[in-house]
């Protein structure tokens, strides 16, 4: 059975180990857009910043 990877940031290892990768970046973006505080500095230089 395929499992969800926890705590692994190496995408190649996740795929090689036959695990699922769950991309939560859009959930984080949605959360930050709903907050009053400007937290855009957290994503400087990342694709999600755009």
Keywords:
50 residues, two-stranded parallel ribbon, 8% strand, alpha+beta
Structural class by secondary-structure content? alpha+beta
Major sheet summary line: 2 strands, parallel
SSE topology string: EHEH
Number of domains: 1
For the record, give the distance between the C-alpha atoms at the N and C termini, rounded to a whole number: 36 Å
The 3D shape can be described as: elongated
Instruction: Write down how many β-strands occur, each being a DSSP E stretch of 2 or more residues.
Output: 2
* Beta-strand percentage range: 5-15%
Side-by-side strand order of the widest sheet: 1-2
Taking all residues together, what is the mean pLDDT?
Answer: 83
Helix segment tally: 2
* Fraction of helical residues: 25-40%
Structural Rg = 14 Å
Low-confidence stretches: none
Textual characterization of the structure:
32% of the residues lie in helices and 8% in strands. The model has no long low-confidence stretch (mean pLDDT 83). The chain has helices at 11-16, 25-34, and strands at 3-4, 19-20. The protein has one domain (3-37).
């Amino acid at each position: 059975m395929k499992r969800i990877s926890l705590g692994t940031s190496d995408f190649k290892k996740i795929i090689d180990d036959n695990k699922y990768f769950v991309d939560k970046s859009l959930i984080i973006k949605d959360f930050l857009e709903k907050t009053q505080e400007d937290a855009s500095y957290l994503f400087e230089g990342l694709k999600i910043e755009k």
